[in-house]
Specification:
The protein contains three helices and eight strands. It has 187 residues and is an alpha+beta fold. It has two domains: 51 residues; 123 residues, Immunoglobulin-like (Sandwich). It is found in: Cell envelope. This is CopC domain-containing protein.
Amino acid sequence: MTVPSSRPTSVRLGAALLAVVVALLIPASPAWAHNTLVSAAPAQESTLSSAPTEIVLEFVERLDPTFTTIVLTDAAKRKVPTGDPVVGGAKGSVQVTEALPNGTYTVAYRVVSTDGHPVQGSYPFTVADPDSSAAPIVSTTTDAPSAAAQVQDDEGPGAGVLVAGGTTAIVVAVVGGLLLRRRASRR
């Protein structure tokens, strides 16, 4: 009795695994399309000759007002009073409720992408008003949390981790099924 070559079975098994992986990853690709900051006013790393009265952030995707946070802190990492975030489409803004003396400030934001993934970031800008008589705010060495730390990240596993785990589980199940089928057909 001749034993059939295992090469065609190996080729079929490899092709099946490749098809499963491709089929799982193609529909999952939108899960990796996270929201991105497109523009900001004041601009990132800018130096302003007068203090802004509003912070406006524009993103690639529409924002969910419930899950949009914008925080402004000074050089001493103290939170600067602002109004609640106002969201319209892909833009989010806050009104600065107090005059800002000269100094460096940090804008921190946290928004949720359409895939449900939280996205956060921060950037600095500087107020250098030549007519300001207020003393500039300087950095201190206290352990006050930064603006980015004040926008807490409470997300669970990222979408990529979940997709990879699901893909691995399915591939293991398919390979196991194919091996059991192959073993049964040899008997």
